[in-house]
Amino acid sequence: MIFRDELDHLARKYNDRLQIFYFYSQEKTSNTFFQGRLDDKKLSLIINQILHLDDTDEESTIWDAVDEVLICGKGEMIKTLANACHHHGIPKKNIHFELFEAFNDDIYPVEKNSRSLKI
């Protein structure tokens, strides 16, 4: 994996505020939770199982403190995850992504103008 050593170094250096979890779409892992494609259901599981507790506040989750998201990958995955992140409270302007391929669809559904012109 590209930059794994660098990412692991940053996680050790900033262990009080940075955790990295590796998910593999094709490789087998010892924990199947980290195996398979990321989608809206997997994101919900991540929020509920990894980001479930905030040690400083019993009522909050770690996800509540997330204010920026970066998604890298293929277009359909980015579209699915970006919409799921937005559905879970992250503003669209704070969801950043890098496409690994050409993608011609809109990432977010196009909102139709609900106002009609009356004459």
UniProtKB/TrEMBL annotation:
Residues making up the signal peptide according to the UniProt record: none
One GO MF term: oxidoreductase activity
Residues of the Oxidoreductase FAD/NAD(P)-binding domain: 2-80
Record Pfam families: NAD_binding_1
Coiled-coil intervals: none
Protein name: Oxidoreductase FAD/NAD(P)-binding domain-containing protein
Source species of the chain: Chryseobacterium endophyticum
Lineage: Bacteria, Pseudomonadati, Bacteroidota, Flavobacteriia, Flavobacteriales
